[in-house]
Amino acid sequence: MENTLLEYKCPCCGGAISFDANLQKLKCPYCDTEFETEALKSYDAELQQDRPEEELKWNTEMGGTWQEGEEEGLQVFTCKSCGGELVTDGNTAATSCPYCDNPVVLTGRLSGDLKPDFVIPFKYDKKAAKEGLLNHFKGKKLLPKVFKDENHIDEIKGIYVPFWLFDAEANANIRYRGTRLRTWMDSNYIYHETQHYAIARAGSLAFERVPVDGSSKMEDALMESIEPYDFSDAMDFQTAFLAGYLADKYDVTADDSIARANERIKRSTEQTFESTVHGYSTLRTEYSNIRLNNGQAKYALYPVWILNTTWRDQKYTFAMNGQTGKFVGDLPLDKGTLFKWLFGLTGILSAVGFGILSLVHYFL
Length: 364
Fold this sequence. Notes:
This protein has 364 residues and is of the alpha+beta class. The chain folds into 2 domains: 8-49, no CATH class; 74-137 and 150-175 and 203-332, no CATH class. Helix content is 23%, strand content 38%. The chain is built from 6 helices and 16 strands. The strands form 2 sheets. Strands 5, 6, 7, 8, 9, 10, 11, 12, 13, 14, 15 and 16 form a 12-stranded mixed β-sheet that branches. It has a 4-stranded antiparallel β-sheet with strand order 1-2-3-4.
């Protein structure tokens, strides 16, 4: 007969549990937690049951192709410095790259790429982008005082950034480990009790138009920072919307954008489910399984203002949502002001710490 060693793991600390003959219970030698045998068997059976593997698959076959003559008048500019390809209407004679600020060269007509399904037109003009930069400076106490006056705007470009929009239904099964803590005391001792709970959540969430930018030259974090866009303003793509603006040609395909879309959907699903769990002192995720159904992707162009500036021979890039006006961008820090602020904060914390220490000595 084959010998089998049956081992249970403590759900509280993960240590191996053994049977205590005196207690007639299972007991963890590491955290001294006691378990009824039948209760632990049921818990272990629930953990060991078969679960489906995560399925995060998409249908990225799109039918948006240029019709004959539709791309006439569209020109392609290529940046020899960073390799960026930009699309604009035929009236643009010369321009510079919004990413590296170097001159770009007209190379030929647009051909061979997918046609966008949607476009959100610009609602804010170049003047509004300049005003957005000035407003971005306001209230920044650690910004060098001379930055506002000396910061030179090299160029402002209105550009349609390519985005892949992912639709899907997420079915999720998530299990959490929660604890509730209780403390009381008598004349001799202080008692602490920790109760452990297994919490399960299951359900579905529908996601529409989860955006992932299709340009490797655009930082994903920067593009996510100027979200959200209001898709109610989206229109079927027409080349007329490109007049006076640039449009970045996607160089990251829908298939290559799936990993980031999955990451955003999974994170959002887990956060939404966790927000439904209340009443516990601590909570951690033990198991998460997410499966996608009916996943599809569309191609859209979203409006972005890119502002390249220079201060003390250093380049700074800012971005503004061309639909909502939301403005983002990193700013330099005044090290002297930062030092004074940190020194003042340290002084306050030291004073607070001294006050607490004095109280402790007083009660002792």
